[in-house]
Amino acid sequence: MANDQLSSVFGALADPTRRAILASLAGGDRSVGELGAPFAISQPAISRHLRVLEGAGLISRSRRAISCVTCEPKSRIR
Which residues are CB-neighbours of 52 under 8 A, at least 6 positions away? Predict the structure, then answer.
């Protein structure tokens, strides 16, 4: 993993909101609205957090849902 990519991952994980978003995605795909519901921040702010996570390669986005690239489904975690 390149040093710049590693810095992007750690930078993305440094924010508690982004860590909470990833934790939510560990349970399965979510919409942007579902991801933003627990936070007292605007939809554009959630979108910015998602761009950071996507740029770090931690999530992927589609028109239907946000998916965690690096998360294992809970049924596989022991």
Answer: 11, 12, 15, 18
